[in-house]
Specification:
single chain, mainly beta, Porin, 11-stranded antiparallel β-sheet, 11 strands, 6% helix, 71% strand
């Protein structure tokens, strides 16, 4: 048990030097493209979150994982009410005086509109992403990270006027992964998971031109906050 406790302490001390980030901007939960239409979004987000790390019967919390993320999101309208998109980007993780650098991240998502009125539409979205990274420090620790996360969101998009739309709702978030720590005293593998499963988000999208819009949103759980913004183009 003493060895396990020391391993978790080592994780808390160095684990944040790996590349890691929480979920990015979700955008409206409803489909925004017509059938056969293409689109692409360019996004930035900043997040601060906590993770759970477990080895054997011992569990610890990795607190204040801070990240900047830049993402490209090409999308396609399968039907007027169903949209599919990809996620391609990089993220950088920081903790105190450490900067983990930018690492590759990728994923996909879908959005389904299932109810429409004159000013309201209701939708469901599913998003999944994969991330990995590695790092080392002067104390002789090397870390390798692999994980995936899933977000499912449900909610309305309200058409406030011809240019402005307000959106939001609850979401369900799952994170699973491993962090392998190579230290001078041996190797330890930690199981990673989210600290909180359920959260909420709210955002706004504003049309700049006919096929160009700007959006911004805020996400939150009991131990996570994220601010994201982006520009969306339709073709």
């Amino acid at each position: 048990m003493k060895t396990k406790v020391l391993s978790v302490v080592a994780l808390v001390a160095i684990g944040l030097s790996t590349s890691a980030f929480a979920f990015g901007p979700l955008g409206p939960p409803t489909a925004g493209l017509k059938e056969g239409q293409f689109g692409v979004a360019s996004e930035y987000s900043y997040s601060d979150s906590d993770w759970k790390a477990k080895v054997g019967d011992t569990e610890a919390t990795i607190k204040d994982v801070k990240s900047d993320m830049f993402i490209a999101q090409p999308a396609y309208g399968v039907t007027d009410d169903f949209e599919a998109y990809a996620l391609l980007g990089v993220a950088d993780t920081k903790f105190e005086d450490f900067d983990g650098g930018y690492k590759f991240a990728y994923g996909f998502g879908v959005k389904l509109t299932f109810e429409k009125t004159e000013n309201f539409s209701w939708g469901l979205m599913y998003e999944m992403g994969w991330k990995s990274g590695s790092d080392s420090n002067e104390a002789g620790y090397g870390t390798d990270l692999d994980y995936y996360d899933i977000t499912v969101a449900l909610g309305p998009t309200w058409k406030a006027n011809e240019q402005l739309r307000i959106y939001g709702g609850p979401f369900f978030y799952v994170l699973r992964g491993t962090l392998d720590v190579d230290s001078p005293s041996g190797d330890t593998s930690f199981k990673l998971s989210e600290e909180t499963l359920v959260g909420g988000y709210v955002g706004a999208e504003f049309d700049l031109y006919t096929n160009t819009s700007l959006y911004a949103e805020f996400q939150f759980t009991g131990d996570t906050m994220l601010f994201g913004t982006g520009i969306n183009w339709k073709f």
